[in-house]
Amino acid sequence: MAGDKGNKSGRGFTPPDPARVKAVLAALNKLYPKAKCALNYRTPWELLVATILSAQCTDQRVNQVTPDLFAKYPGVADFAKAGLPELEEAVRSTGFFRNKAKSIKGAAQAIMEKHAGQVPDNLDELVKLPGVGRKTANVVLGDAFGVPGITVDTHVGRVCRRLEFTDQTDAVKAEFALMEIIPQKRWTPFSHQVITHGRQVCHSRKPDCPGCGLLKHCPFGQEHLADQD
């Protein structure tokens, strides 16, 4: 379908009409006024850990794992001192548990050594932590520190390509493209709203285009329905 696969070269792509972008943002506000991060956390560190665990895993599963995890390891220092085999076992059910445990322990050690035990509140320092890329950093910045950031996960990438807000399939390139068209103050709520929309309506294989509140603004949805006529 047009607008879904993306164009890695970026050639031939026309940026969306600002009026259409504004209309989509208004529609998202109406559809998902209370959209927020689905991960449970109490501190920036807990959100960082939960976000690392959420890779290739549902937020629901992460939320089942983290209460016991944070009870066993209450703070950054506890994770830094944790035995890797025990930590792996504690996060096993989230998948890719060896890499995740290694990243979490490494991040904890780096935060203890370089940041006096406090999660840094800027992107440059966050992405230097083991296992932390721009997506994870933007989640932590936006939700724990109130610093605007666009989180391009699979849902945001898919929905924004279908809306023809970007043609990029690379998450970082898509993030920068979206930063050009979405007002900065909307970056974090926009991310949550689009993630919610992707989960509830704009599914990967069977999007509910007839029931979509963004249909009149969505080239993909209109073409998808036309193909079914």
CATH class of the largest domain: Mainly Alpha
- Helix fraction bin: 55-70%
Task: Please report the number of helical segments.
Answer: 12
CATH topology grouping of the largest domain: Endonuclease Iii, domain 2
SS class: mainly alpha
- State the end-to-end CA separation: 15 Å
- Which consecutive residue ranges, at least 5 long each, have pLDDT under 50? 5-10
Q: Strand tally, please?
A: 0
- In round numbers, the mean pLDDT is 94
* Percentage of β-strand residues: under 5%
Going by CATH, what is the homologous superfamily of the largest domain? Helix-hairpin-Helix base-excision DNA repair enzymes (C-terminal)
Largest sheet descriptor: none
Number of domains: 2
- CATH architectural label of the largest domain: Orthogonal Bundle
Shape call? elongated
Q: What is the CA-atom radius of gyration, in angstroms?
A: 19 Å
Query: From N to C, what is the helix and strand string?
Result: HHHHHHHHHHHH
Give a structural overview:
With 229 residues, the protein is mostly helical. It has 2 domains: 18-35 and 150-228, Orthogonal Bundle (Endonuclease Iii, domain 2), CATH 1.10.1670; 44-118, Hypothetical protein, domain 2 (Endonuclease III, domain 1, Orthogonal Bundle). The protein has 12 helices and no strands. It has helices at residues 18-31, 44-53, 59-72, 76-81, 84-90, 97-114, 123-126, 134-144, 154-162, 171-181, 187-200, 219-228. α5 (84-90) packs across α6 (97-114).
